[in-house]
Amino acid sequence: MNRILVTGGAGFIGSNLVRQLQEDEPQAVILVIDDLRVGDWSNLCSEDASGWSFRGQIIPRALNDLDLFGVIEDFDPEVVFHLASITDTTVADQNKMLVDNVEPFEVLLDAAAELGIKLVWASSAATYGTHANGAVQQRRPFRLDDAGRPANIYGFSKWVMENMARQTLADSPESHVVGLRYFNVFGPGEQSKGRMASMIYQLAQQMLDGKRPRIFNPGEHARDHVHVRDVVGATLAAAGDKVRMGTYNVGTGKATNFNEVVAALNEALGTSLEPDYFENPFKFYQDYTCADLSQTRSGLRWSPKVETRAGILEYARQLASKPRNAAAQG
User: Fold this and answer.
1) Is 241 helix (H, G, I), strand (E, B) or coil?
2) Which one from 118, 128, 182, 193 is the annotated catalytic residue?
3) Which residues contact 191 (CB under 8 A, 6 or more apart)?
4) Residues forming beta bridges with residue 121, ordered by sequence position
5) Can you tell me whether residue 316 is helix, strand or coil?
6) b/e per residue, 91-109, with b = 16+ CB within 10 A?
7) Annotation says 193 is catalytic
8) Which tens digit of pLDDT belongs to each residue from 259-268?
9) How far is 151 from 144, CA to CA, in rounded Å?
């Protein structure tokens, strides 16, 4: 890859992806498009001795404010990694969610089909909703065909995008279009997401402040917590020449409940803070997620490498090693 476009490249997953791309493709020209509503410039450089510093270009604009097709034609990338979207699941403005998430995606699909550009894009486990065709009740891994029952407008926007991608592949079967249903991603760089940062990050911050970690009663709700390092690996794999086109789950294939998360954080931080349980106020809350990775392994030729508990221990110790005012910012 000599020319690479990353939308949302200053955000959590996007900046980790850009960093890995620079390591893997040191001669590549990288263009980031990010309006910095959730992304942050500091995600693209490091204050420590690691030497991480962005070497590409950035357009600080929303995708809908650009002639996006024209930008793609001018930049002429081999691959577009599309991670930009409104990801706040509590946003209630349906029109804004659909306009911001769906409309630019149509342009990207047209570019993939007409210009022969590889398109790898972020869908979400939110497409499964709170029922997922019985998978939640059975507490079994979510198969790809369990999706289509989103519980909020964010999940619906991603489901519509998946429908559009399927139609593009039906109309232009030679196109390279791969969607990735990210599950619950955590790891370095998520601090700019604020209240939408992972619960692992938020609970760690509470505990670093000496507070009891607040989780929904009784703490048995479980998520497929996947480290951002694995998410980046899957995203890069999706741009490979031998993958099957379609949409895939990206997780660990294991659900970890929040009592287990708190236990791991206590171990990593050297604390013994008991959970502060409270009742869940959200009707659309996904109390269980778990990715079935059977098709991911065969279609993307990718499997996760970071075991959830080990990833939590590593991440919490990284947060604890920072000065307290820096740790609160990531």
Assistant:
1) coil
2) 193
3) 197, 201, 329, 330
4) 82, 179
5) helix
6) beeeeebbebbbebbebbb
7) yes
8) 999 999 999 9
9) 17
Query: Catalytic: which of 128, 154, 248, 315?
Result: 154
Indicate if 285 belongs to the active site.
Answer: no
pLDDT tens track for 229-288:
999 999 999 999 999 999 999 999 999 999 999 999 999 999 999 999 999 887 777 889
CATH number for the domain formed by residue range(s) 3-327: 3.40.50.720
Q: Which amino acid is at 282?
A: F
Tokens 């039906």 correspond to: 170
Beta strands in 151-209 (DSSP E): 177-182, 184-186
Domain boundaries, the chain: 3-327
Tokens of 310: 């080990």
Strand partners, 185: 226
Q: How far, in Å, CA of 26 to CA of 51, rounded?
A: 14
Angle at 36 between CA 313 and CA 31, to 5 degrees: 90
